Amino acid sequence: MRALSTTPFVDERAVESCCPPLSERPLSSEEAEAAAQLFKALGDPIRLRLLSAIASHKDGEACVCDVSDVGVSQPTVSHHLRRLREAGLLISERRGTWIYYRVDPATLAAMGRILSAASAKA
Amino acid sequence: MRALSTTPFVDERAVESCCPPLSERPLSSEEAEAAAQLFKALGDPIRLRLLSAIASHKDGEACVCDVSDVGVSQPTVSHHLRRLREAGLLISERRGTWIYYRVDPATLAAMGRILSAASAKA
DNA sequence: GCTCTATATTGACATATCTCGAATCAGAGT
DNA sequence: ACTCTGATTCGAGATATGTCAATATAGAGC
């Protein structure tokens, strides 16, 4: 199992620089920028369907061919998978002919943390 | 005049038509479309800062003047608040001279549900 | 080497989004 | 009535994003 960039490669891992609960305190500009990258990655119906298809697939992973049936061209699917990977939401790995994707649960959890109620102030 | 609607007014309330956990099953096209509207609303750093400023403000509410200090013009702030309101994330109410915004916790909770691990399948 | 299949990248175009200044609306108080 | 202030809407320009067809890359197998 080698890696085809097991890790994302931009300034990704936005996770590490954001993610306190929204109601804990006003987000800093940097935190907001990092968090926005994550939410932007989920702000497209095709990407949500790809992510959901992978997350719900057997063993939590799927090759591109398993999830390509979303109504757009193959390059477009590839483009969206790349965006999800660059956001840190997906991890990819080549095994022989196929490339398998799976969800990075840490990133998903970080996003959930932002949305969590934290300590209600009222 | 459509009034400063306390309730959103598009086909909003996307909440009602989406939101199963991502890993439960592949999202339908309609569910993905509805959920994407929600995530798109959070996919901007200014909107995240506005939402966070409101959520963390005293009593969980704030007037525009309380949160306008995010580095963009006042019309731009208004535009972003409107987008958050149309997504169902904010509720607005005029009281005298000021208009107060507060977070709709149900919408936030629905988004959190999508991200939740649900039943891990592997 | 060659070919076949699976996936990624490039380049171009159309649409969506963010932003601003200017204008407008709404309520409070004189 | 007028004016002042808080907030929204309008119109336009710049940038970002989604999409495709064409091309390229990578591995398997002959």
UniProtKB/TrEMBL annotation, chains A, B:
Keyword annotations of the record: DNA-binding, Transcription, Transcription regulation
Coiled-coil blocks: none
Protein name, UniProt field: HTH arsR-type domain-containing protein
SUPFAM superfamilies to which the protein is assigned, alphabetical: Winged helix' DNA-binding domain
Every HTH arsR-type domain range: 27-122
Domain of life: Bacteria
Gene3D superfamilies named among the record's database cross-references: Winged helix-like DNA-binding domain superfamily/Winged helix DNA-binding domain (1.10.10.10)
CDD domains membership: HTH_ARSR
Organism: Streptomyces microflavus (Streptomyces lipmanii)
GO molecular function: DNA binding; DNA-binding transcription factor activity
